[in-house]
Amino acid sequence: CGRSTKMTTKRMQHHSPCKINILVIDDEPSNLVVLEEVLAIAGYVPLVAENGRDGCQLARERGVDLILLDIMMPEEDGFEVIQKLKKDPQTVSIPVIFLTGSNNVEHKLLGFRLGAVDYIVKPFQSEEVIARINLHLKLARATDLLISCQTEKIRQISEAQCQLLVSPSMVPAGKFSILYRSLQEAGGDFYDVLELSDHIHSYFIADISGHDIATGFLTSALKALLTQNVSLIYSPAESLKMMHNVLKGILPPEKYLTACLATLNRETNKLSVVSAGHPPLLHIPREGEATFISCRGDAMGILPDVFFETQQLTVNPGDKLLLFSDGLLEASSGKNPWPSQLPRLLALAPDLNEMPLHKIPENLKNILAPKETRISDDIVIMAIEV
Questions:
Q1: Quick check: pTM over 0.90?
Q2: What 3-state DSSP class applies to 226?
């Protein structure tokens, strides 16, 4: 048994990625010799271990495709071994077939509950062993392929959504910095910056209800609606109302969104803000006290008709504006509603005023939602300099 294990180890050092490695864990040397021969004749690369400890170590260190595991072993039985395998991220997905000399139904049910994929009853026929191994290797590969395909689709969705999001380098005259953290691969928060002229820019941030993939798909609709409806010929309130009229016809019944649209004219230093039930914009003047710009407004996509209040104010060069989604405040509020955290954010305004624009979103996130904080919603933070 020791000699064959040594030979197997030597073969493994230079095995091709196409070869299939089968690990046998059994305390009976005779069983190991027989199974090693059966596997080798069938073209598999056999690995053998006489106890669960060595078997788990081999499974972690080698690229094992399937494990044949004896139930009755002296130090650790098969049930204890499979529990260790299923708790280890390196071995959790390896299919395990139990070897047993008993037809005890309770043992079989326990094994299946612990993660075994099949049983082979001793004394076994070599043809049955290979047939069951082939079957479960096919199933495992089909599962891996399915997971790989789904992962690739989700990756493409995420990349497509990221391509919709504008970066500061794409609109340098917009003078903004951004932090975007999605809870899932395709997030429900969305932002955009539109250059209406050389000195007029519109800044938009939205939060779509829900965290499913369907929510992420709606961001492409928002991108198109913004391009079509945010213009110099419409006021911000008119733009949101036209977008609402389209959204109420395409949003599923359970979906809605909050949003804030701010249009800044850097020639006249005028800022117009409208909100659709969204957290207020924070105005941090270069000199003076920071204030929240709150606007009454209905969430979009629910009611047949909506109202949006417009707030207009004069700003000055060097002032900063902060747009954010409620996920930023919810991360730091625990079970309290996010408005309870507005005073805390307001107290941070003097520190934010002293920061370079590009550092504000990341630093603010680290203060209100540090790495150890459990995030339960998407987070978008946009900092703008007048």
A1: no
A2: helix
